[in-house]
Amino acid sequence: MRRLSRKKALNLVKELDAFPKVPESYVETTASGGTVSLIAFSVMALLTTLEFFVYRDTWMKYEYEVDKDFSSKLRINIDITVAMKCQHVGADILDLAETMITSNGLQYEPCCVLQTCYLLSRTLLLIQNRLREEHALQEVLYKTVLKGGPTALPPREDASLEPLNACRIHGHVYVNKVAGNFHITVGKPIHHPRGHAHIAAFVTHETYNFSHRIDHLSFGEEIPGIINPLDGTEKITNNNNQMFQYFITVVPTRLHTYKISADTHQFAVTERERVINHAAGSHGVSGIFVKYDTSSLMVTVREQHMPLWQFLVRLCGIIGGIFSTTGMLHGFVGFCFDVVCCRFKLGAYRPREVSPARCV
């Protein structure tokens, strides 16, 4: 009884076979079929290789939501060199709530105007130009973030024979998450209950020179390896009454890659510069003004990878699709060739007329 049940089960399984085996004696091979098979195998190998590279690659997914964190502080990282002596310039921040943020976190370091790393500065400018032309490069920068990578110029060397006629202002400050104005102008800032003032009485007008280089300017947590829009920016002027303005929109950003996770801020910037001439109606104060405003939206950037099951499904689709497509094309081409060259060829398959037999 057990043997009969096993035979019945085996026969049932054989009836469900979707891949029937054809004896080799019934199979006929042709040169055209072999050529099509070689082409199919080559195409399958090429597409499988390309699909493997797609599987190894990653992409960035952007998600947008309302920023509900309004009580925390915003960190501003600054590294700017101004072509004036440190005792002649002052930097501070005044936000929209008329709160004056003292620059206690900033350091004033005398340096030389020519004392800079030209190679890194030119590299940063080249990357900025590429970012303006090709926005997809930002994803490459996100995916190649490395801990411990440089974000700003290396420390200045003290052994310089050039006069220290410039000032490097660097450090970080914490401000409220509202619109504000970070500025560098003539004179040291002072606290005044009725307004905002800089002491510039002892600085002669001939020493005004706001040519500057922005080595690093970012918002939020400092992420090594990320290139910011103003990094490497250099402005040179020969006019003493020059005003440089940078209008920045800051967007909170959460970055999650396979190498790092951090809360940082992206920003977009527009620039403007003009000469202060009160007689011509161009009013203002000479200096460097960075006016920033925070966005109400937050961007979450996640690095994603194709799952293994999806790669296998796509691979099966490639192999099965090529087999089916090449088989149908081979059959269709063979049918057309048979019809054109054999069926309608005059006299090729015309049946011979048999004459009737005569009786003798």
From TrEMBL:
Membrane topology: Multi-pass membrane protein
InterPro entries: Erv (IPR045888), Erv_C (IPR012936), Erv_N (IPR039542)
Endoplasmic reticulum vesicle transporter N-terminal domain segment(s): 13-99
Location relative to the cell: Endoplasmic reticulum membrane; Endoplasmic reticulum-Golgi intermediate compartment membrane; Golgi apparatus membrane
Gene Ontology, cellular component aspect: COPII-coated ER to Golgi transport vesicle; endoplasmic reticulum membrane; endoplasmic reticulum-Golgi intermediate compartment membrane; Golgi membrane
GO biological process, one term: retrograde vesicle-mediated transport, Golgi to endoplasmic reticulum
This protein's record includes keyword Transmembrane: yes
Residues spanning the membrane: 35-55, 311-333
Alphabetically ordered keywords of this record: Endoplasmic reticulum, ER-Golgi transport, Golgi apparatus, Membrane, Transmembrane, Transmembrane helix, Transport
Limits of the Endoplasmic reticulum vesicle transporter C-terminal domain: 165-328
Function: Plays a role in transport between endoplasmic reticulum and Golgi.
Family of this protein: Belongs to the ERGIC family.
PANTHER family: ENDOPLASMIC RETICULUM-GOLGI INTERMEDIATE COMPARTMENT PROTEIN (PTHR10984), ENDOPLASMIC RETICULUM-GOLGI INTERMEDIATE COMPARTMENT PROTEIN 2 (PTHR10984:SF30)
Protein name, entry field: Endoplasmic reticulum-Golgi intermediate compartment protein
Organism: Myripristis murdjan (pinecone soldierfish)
Gene that this sequence comes from: ERGIC2
